[in-house]
Fold these 2 entries.
Entry 1:
Amino acid sequence: MSKQIIHTDAAPAAVGPYSQAVSATGSKTVFLSGQIGLEPSSGELVSENFEAQVRQAFTNMTAVIEEAGGTLSDIVKLTLFLTDLNKFTAANAIMAELIPQPFPARSTIGVASLPKEAQFEVEAILVLP
């Protein structure tokens, strides 16, 4: 896969670990369903702790990406869903730690609720070589 990061000074700069836009070419596009912080073995939330849920959601997403034959570097678009946008900075910090640069495009959405009373959900689009 070939990724080209698109940036213009005519639009606001990214306020976190993401790019304004990403152009990608490859042979296979994979659309991942949202992942919340469930432990795969129990189907229950890993913790009531926000950061623990974020990390588990990214772990779950990584497992699906690997099963599809990709890596975190193949992500071209992420969407984050938070039930409390005051925790945006914490989610950004974890994402910056886990997702390799150049960062994919991203949207962050505040939502009223998520399945199983989760506080965080992540979904992704990949382009595989």
Note: The CA atoms of residues 49 and 119 lie 9 Å apart.
Entry 2:
Amino acid sequence: MIRAALLSAALLSPMPLAAQEASPAEPEDGPSLMERGLSLFFEGFRQEMEPALEGMGQALGEMKPAMDELMGMIDSMTYYQMPEMLENGDIIIRRKPDAPPVAPPAPEAPGIDL
């Protein structure tokens, strides 16, 4: 009973005037309501996207050897035209006509069968 009386007295007591908005002449302390809202929004977005981004990072790490091999075959991306999709779904990337000739790949050393 005493707790209820104290709680109701605290709720019904006059609130301090600190909750009023600052006048335009007075600078605000801390971030505005909009800044706090955006900060909370982006924090929630980051927390939601974190597992997906970690999975994507792992997948890219697994693809790195293949991407390195592919980039070793391509001398410069500026020598190629934009990718083009054919009617059958194939994607081709043509080399520009004014690009320098491609050096043939070095022959691989023959393997040794044991």
Note: The first strand starts at residue 84 and ends at 85.
